[in-house]
Amino acid sequence: MTAGKGKNLLWRLLRKHVSPLQLAGFSIASLVGLTIVVLALQFYVDVKPVFSDEDSFARRDYIVVTKHVSGLGSMFGSGVEFSESDIADLESQPWVREVGRFTTSEYGIYASVMFGGRGLRTQLFFESVPDKFIDELPEDWGFDPANPKVPVILSRDYLSLYNFGFAATQGMPKISEGMIGMVPVSLALSGNGDRQVVEGRIVGFSNRLNTIIVPESFMQWSNEKFGDGSAKQPSRLIVEVSKPGDVAIGEYMDAHGYEIGGDKADSGKASYFLNVTIGIVVAVGALISLLSFFVLMLSIYLLLQKNTRKLQDLLMLGYTPRQVSSPYVKLVVAVNCIVLAVACIAVAVCRACYLPILEAFDVSGGEIWMPIVVAVVVMGAITLGNIMAIRRRVASLWHQ
Q: Which helix H or strand E contains 335, and what residues bound it?
């Protein structure tokens, strides 16, 4: 018997007992499961920028921690500092990557600027943190006592308050970020019986730190020269966390009377909730895909069982187990490829429906290749498992 006739015979044997209903059931289950998995991953990729300014799954997140202020003691600065034991205990928490300390200026600071023909003079304070905790570190960040020019980083909120609050009511000109960097600032530092005027310049803005930041080298130099010389514990800490919004973070803060500055706790919880929800959806989709795998295997095993005698006869006639299993393998590969293609099309259609909603948040969506790669890997693993099971079953008929 020729190879072509043998193949036709195998196909006739297969088609005789194929149940279209069983194949349709497998295909639908596999399609639903794969579509859920890929769509959940694609939605995660697209919506993640809504909760983060950084385009990364493993992005860092930071919270600013202070002690709860209450009573007259706290009004005079008592009990709001973090002791070394407090900091060590915080660093030992599993969700903490690193802890940074805010260092505060211990002297008087008056800043004056001239622009638009008018002068502005105000009292300020400075803080410093380790450079690694600054989100946008300028190139000219640093301080040399021999040439005392002080680079300053402002919170973007401060510039907004000036432009839309103070300037709007006082007839002062509004300032853009680029313009304010060109305005020289005169800083009068005084304390410890000494006074010195240095030049300052705003070199950047921060979304993370709601304060006025100067280099740590300048803070150390100025506190030694104008401060009272006493070592003070920090009253604010910046913490790099590994799991933003983790329930354990809120429980720890409440238990120790700590507070998280700004809305980082709420945004972190939203991000954490997003991660949990996506995880649940992916798990459900994976479970459906796994069940569809077993549905197909059951269908193939029933089909092989119905044809056991005929397949054994073919093996006795000289057909190899690979040749006998070939029609079943081709059927599985064809069905799985169709499911993969339809799932990708379904994800693309669903994505086109929700992307206009994300554009309202100024989010254009993420890359589509990663979920597609996951879909190919998942369906490839299922197909490989199907092929191995089919060949193992046919090989077992050879030994019977």
A: helix 321-359
Beta carbons within 10 angstroms of residue 264's beta carbon = 20
What counts of helices (H) and strands (E) characterise the chain?
13, 12
Helix, strand, coil shares of the chain as percentages rounded to 5? 55, 20, 25
H-assigned helices in 117-246: 156-161, 167-170, 177-180, 216-226
pLDDT in tens, 194-229: 899 998 888 888 888 888 999 999 999 999 889 877
How far is residue 254 from each of residues 65, 161, 242, measured CA to CA in Å? 12, 31, 19
**Cα–Cα distance between 285 and 366 in angstroms, integer?**
21
Please name the residue that has the structure tokens 């969506």.
365
Are 174 and 238 in contact by the 8 Å Cβ rule? The answer is no
User: Beta partners for 113?
Assistant: 120
- Give the pLDDT confidence of 225-266 residue by residue, as tens digits: 898 777 788 889 999 887 666 778 888 888 988 888 754 555
Q: How far apart are CA 73 and CA 138, in angstroms?
A: 39
